[in-house]
TrEMBL record:
Keywords: Cell membrane, Membrane, Transmembrane, Transmembrane helix. It is a multi-pass membrane protein. This is Probable membrane transporter protein. Pfam families: TauE. It comes from the Bacteria. Its main location: membrane. GO terms for cellular component: plasma membrane. The keyword Lyase does not apply. It comes from Polycladomyces abyssicola. InterPro entries: TM_pro_TauE-like, TSUP/Inactive_protease-like. Belongs to the 4-toluene sulfonate uptake permease (TSUP) (TC 2.A.102) family. The chain crosses the membrane at residues 34-62, 74-97, 103-122, 235-253, 265-284. It is found in: Cell membrane; Membrane.
Length: 296
């Protein structure tokens, strides 16, 4: 592997961690989507991302615990089912032919991109704290299982699935939702990595890819913590949602033979316009809110 490609992989890790550190989600989805553009097989891409996440999530979890952003009960109830789901998902993905599974993984990420976009475009962003109450095991165990499985098979999804779902429930402050999800993700990343190593073996993993992703993520972590104070979370959410949609649209259009190639430019243009329009809408709302507050 040439130095140029290693630098690109480090930049992918940097960009993914920048997004994840500012949003509390989307490291796996962002990095896997970008790795797909380099033609990396789904199992190898997802394995590389999860190995890099072992380091980045450990640092993130330690920081959240230190600042009291963690509900220990939620973490404990998410960790075991999440780990089981991630391990099963890793073994499942590794046993499927790469070329056959790639369109399905790209389709899942494409849909997840719209989910992330919609979540931050139309979601309630008042950031108010909720009264504390315990979220039941009956709710958290299946959530952990499904999110862990999806995270391994799609190369991402733990944060985008668990964070909005927990935020939609009455019972946790937003900061503790993000902190608990990030902290529990360490165990999910470790379990997924073990599953991939057992299924595809050590020799099929390029440790230089993993190291490049890790280095990029380590450099991005403190910058992301600074950026989150400046850029509104809804704007960052719309940015990453659009990024996921555009990158996976390219993979999907390459594999879907029934869509004429003459339509590709029009589809890209429509998706780009949707993305730009969403960004402008978020900015306009932000300016409008400031104008209203100043006029009072």
């Amino acid at each position: 592997m040439g130095m140029q490609r290693l630098i690109v992989l480090a930049l992918i890790g940097f960009a993914a961690q920048l997004v994840d550190g500012a949003l509390g989600m989307a490291y796996g989805v962002t990095s896997t989507s970008l790795l797909f553009l380099f033609g990396i097989a789904p199992a190898v891409a997802s394995a590389s991302v999860h190995m890099a996440e072992v380091i980045t999530t450990a640092a993130s979890g330690a920081s959240h615990i230190r600042f009291g952003n963690v509900d220990r009960t939620v973490v404990i109830r998410l960790v075991i089912p999440g780990s089981i789901g991630a391990f099963i998902g890793a073994c499942f993905l590794s046993n499927l032919p790469g070329d056959q599974v790639k369109p399905y993984v790209a389709a899942f990420l494409f849909i997840l991109g719209f989910y992330v976009l919609g979540r931050f475009l139309f979601g309630n962003g008042n950031g108010t704290e909720r009264k504390e109450s315990t979220i039941s095991k009956r709710f958290l165990i299946p959530l952990g299982l499904i999110a862990g499985f999806v995270d391994s098979t799609g190369g991402g999804g733990w944060g985008p699935l668990t964070t909005p779902i927990l935020l939609s429930r009455k019972g946790l402050e937003p900061r503790k939702v993000v902190g608990s999800v990030d902290t529990s993700e360490f165990a999910v990343a470790v379990s997924a990595t073990l599953g991939f190593l057992i299924s595809i073996g050590w020799s099929n993993i390029s440790w230089t890819w993993v190291a490049a992703l890790m280095i990029g993520g380590i450099f991005a972590a403190p910058i992301a913590a600074w950026l989150v104070r400046i850029i509104p979370s809804h704007l960052l959410g719309v940015l990453v949602g659009g990024l996921i949609i555009i990158t996976n649209a390219k993979t999907l259009l390459k594999t879907l033979d029934w869509i004429p190639s003459t339509w590709h430019t029009a589809i890209y243009s429509a998706l780009t316009l949707l993305w730009v329009g969403s960004i402008l809408l978020v900015v306009w709302r932000r300016v409008g809110q400031k104008w209203v507050s100043l006029s009072k």
